[in-house]
Amino acid sequence: MKKILTSLCVFLCINTNLNAQAGSLDTTFNTDGIATLNPGTLHDVVYAVTTQPDQKIVFAGVARITSTTGFTSDLVIGRLKTNGSRDSGFANNGIFNLASTGGSVFGYDVLVQPDGKIVACGGYSVTASNTDFIVVRLNNDGTPDNTFGGGDGIEIIPVGAGEDYAYDIALLPNGKFILAGNSSVPNFSYGSGIVMRLLPDGSIDNTFGTAGYTAVQTTSTADETFRCMEVMPSGKIIAAGSSYTNNNDNVLMAAFDTNGDLDTTFAINGVYIGSTINIAFDLAINGNEIYLAGRISSTSGYDLGIIGFDTTGVVLSTFGSNGTVSANYNPIDAALGITIQPDGKIVCVGTSGLGTFNNRDFLVTRYLPTGSLDPTFAGTGYAIIPIGASFDEANAVALQADGKILVAGFAALGTNDMVFVRLTNDLAVGLNNMEAVNDLNVYPVPVSGSTLFITSAIPFKEAVVCDLYTLTGQLVSGTTVQDAGNTFEFPVPSQLPAGTYLLRIRTGNNSFSRLIMK
Prior knowledge:
mainly beta, four-stranded antiparallel β-sheet, Immunoglobulin-like, 35 strands
């Protein structure tokens, strides 16, 4: 039996700001908790953020750096040090950018592979009316990975004849990638939600769907988009976004099997369309629960909206009010990013304020697993954080390994600038208690073989839910064990890459997390 090194658990659980209330600005980050960045001259925006194992901050977005055509922008992949300053050892003073003579290049999502390589997806304008999927892979130092794409680290993938955008990307244990987005014909006609699979070198995997992708269009006059996506440990793909018909948006969600076919056991023949929320901008999966974050149309504008489902596409009636949580702090409220803490609490980020070009601020909310606001967060369960005097929008959220909450987006500070906010957290509260009570052991560590054994000095009296995550929050594997007793087995994916992972164990009202290595 081998017990995990205490130093690893301390790295995860100790928060240096436990004396500050969760949801407070972290003054160890750029002295006031807020860092701004303006690599370009116009419309610098962060759309996605994550962290490396060394806790450096990796992001993707857009900025007008070299593009000079109209209001066009470059795709940007950047890296910050843990204190919020640029990492000069990455690309060009912390910034990699890519432009197109045909128009803009967009960066919408980013991930860090276990080997340290960085992958981003988005859209590449070939012409003003023709945009293709794009995937870029960089080495850890920000240089293009010459083993990816055409040898330049770039893969441009046409889907339809018009506007194609890849909004989300996930890495599979075998090194392949899943993309989610949409594709439309020219002149902004009806579009389809797209789920695509790529081989590890960026080329299309033709064994998936039809010629590498699956398109979803529920009716001939519906304009549909997948804006977010997650892959479950079983390999099932959940994608969500919106279906626009007759001047109305309805939330769209679909499930696909590992071959790219719609999972007909999910919702109705693999597809859910509902009007409780209108658009899902992001989603998170917590064991057997799916949460979509977005907005709800209201008489004054929009309300924040979150809806919960089980993994068969049935609404969670025990979450919020009949499965839905809403919030109305100002005429415009929206949830644009969502993540789930190891203790099961749900963190959403977005924007709150007045109309389209009026004053809005960053919005960060935290909910209990029941859907109620968590009063231990910012005193009320939500924080409205002004950045500038005009338009502020938080597009993405990530949890650091120490539990701090990293929020990213942009603010209209003269021109639009990238903004990063870091908030304190209280994740250590409750985690150490379970360790003291149950004296959990996990072995073998480093991981070898196909099984982790988890033992407890005190028998587990309730069902045990055990999940394995990458340090960037991607769920790798999960299991639920009934009648576990003092010992139970956790199956390890056979193709799990070498790296450091977060093992999360929940039983009853207790939650426990540990870092493990392979």
